[in-house]
Amino acid sequence: MEKMFSKDRMLLLIRSIFIQNRSKDLRLALVVAGIMAFFGLVSPSHGDYDFFGVVNVCVLLVLAGTTYKMLAVPSRAMDYLMLPASTAEKTVVTIAYLNIYYVLMMMVSSFVGFYFGQMLQNLIAIVPFFRDLFGSSGHTFALSAVSFHKLGSNLLSLTCGISVLLFGSLYFRRHAILKTLLVGCGFCFALFILDMIVISSAGYAYGLTINNVNLPDLPEWAETTIEIMVPCVFTLFFWFMTYLRLRETEA
Amino acid sequence: MIQLKDVTFGYTKIAPVFKDLNLELAGGHIYGLLGKNGVGKTTLMKIIAGLRFADSGTTEVFGEPSYKRSPDMLQDLYYLGEEVYAPQLTIQQYVDAFAPFYPHFSREQMDAYLEQFELTGCTQRISAMSHGQKKKVIISFALATNVKVLLMDEPTNGLDIPSKSMFRKVMAMAADEERLFVLSTHQVRDLHSLIDSIILLDGGEILLAEPNEVITDKLLFKVVDSTEGLQNLLYAEDTLRGIYTVSENVNHEESKLDIELLFNAAISNKKKIKELFSNY
Questions:
Q1: Which position among A72, B60, B91, B181 has the lowest Cβ density within 10 Å, counted as fewest Cβ atoms?
Q2: Contacts of B52 in chain A (CB under 8 A)
């Protein structure tokens, strides 16, 4: 176990990744903050804020889908694989980096950007021309209005999406995001077909979709458990697959 | 330190690069890994480093299977590829990011090697340096890690003439009785004075893997005017300065090893060379 996981080596890995990426990450955070400031400026405030809006989700998924892009370059792949840390440590640190560091970074930078945009909107609304142009709600959003239940549910779905793209970036060395999405779509389509076959073979009329079928209502606790368990199982599965794939990666 | 037993490896099933390869390398040596293009020098080094997995057989470094790439093995083994990865970091940042992984890393040594390579005080990002400079930085780092096993693939490729001599000097500074260096090269003249043992690879097998003194004990390197009457001649090369010959050293005469001649002699007399050095 000591060989597989060492706290010191994991901290060194985090430090090493941080040193290598800090200027790139700072630029990314500034770009996201800038985009969100623009959205904050032009959109009316409703007093709430979606931490996992389109911008954040897209950026995080792209980051996940390009994590192991460097393995396509032999010299970089060798450098990474020869770094003195176990495969398990490298996998765990990568997962933590994507799901904690980058998620927090995106949440903070987009929130700060959006907040700044809204402040600016209220400030310039004093001038009638700008008030007509951007409109003004007269109030900014408050963190207390954020739905933490929704936040948790979104975070879970996002973590699941990140884990799929992380595995995709390791499995497909080039055009990983596109290929992962295509495989994902193919998988969903196959599930849909399977659904149709199951429904029709169960005696329902042809032409029915799953939406028309009256399935028995599950108790609320069961629905909530399924909602939580399914993304959790998927996430753990793809994390484990990432570890296995990395362990057998050659350069 | 390194042990390969019956290693078979191929990129395709039809044509294996190696078949039942056996090799044992001990510390305190600078091995020159020689062979023709495409013979598998890089592949062999990668198998030792755990970057390629053999189809069958075992490869052990410090008694551990290399394919596992365990942290214990990796912190005492450094593989320097022909193409080096140069991140967008300064030398200082590079050291900050990677040196702590190597428990025996010495900043003083790194500075001394950089000084030899005339790179002291360089604040440029490594990625912005010339190919030769990048290589010199990574070579300095690799040597300063003080790992027990250092594998270098064509280390002098991309270095200018003065840098090659600097490289030899730096390598001589870094070598000690415990460390094991394996240098793969086409350019034997660059590393002739450095190498103390030779591994000769051809046709998927090791023709010989011996220290220089064992080679000169068994083979005689001589420049003659005529090959007439020369016994047990293995190879002769006519040049303006005379005929360079390699023959069996039946009388245990002293001679100076010429790696290029040895290489040509071994390639043209595989069977005889294998008989003479029958350990492998």
A1: A72
A2: 250-251
What 8-state DSSP symbol labels residue A217? P
- CA distance, residue B74 to nearest chain A CA (Å): 5
- What is the model's pTM? 0.87
Q: Which residues of B140-152 are buried (b: 16+ CB within 10 A; e: fewer)?
A: bbbbbbbbbbbbb
Quote the ipTM score: 0.90
Residue of A nearest to B93 (CA): A19
- Across chain B, mean pLDDT equals 91
Residue B135 near residue B159, CB atoms below 8 Å: yes
Domain boundaries, chain A: 7-158
Q: How confident is the model at residue A225 (pLDDT cuts 50, 70, 90)?
A: confident
pLDDT in tens, A152-202: 778 899 999 999 999 999 999 889 999 999 999 999 999 989 888 877 776
Q: Is the dihedral of CA B74, B167, A70, A248 positive or negative?
A: negative
Residue B68 has pLDDT above 60, yes or no: yes
CA atoms within 13 A on the CB side of B6: 2
CB pair distance less than 8 Å for B70 and A251: no
What does the pLDDT average to over B238-249?
A: 90
Instruction: Set out the domains of chain B in order of their start, with CATH numbers.
Output: 2-203 (3.40.50.300), 212-276 (no CATH)
> Which DSSP string do the residues of B118-142 spell out, in sequence order?
T-TT--SBGGGS-HHHHHHHHHHHH
* A-B C-beta contacts closer than 8 Å: 70
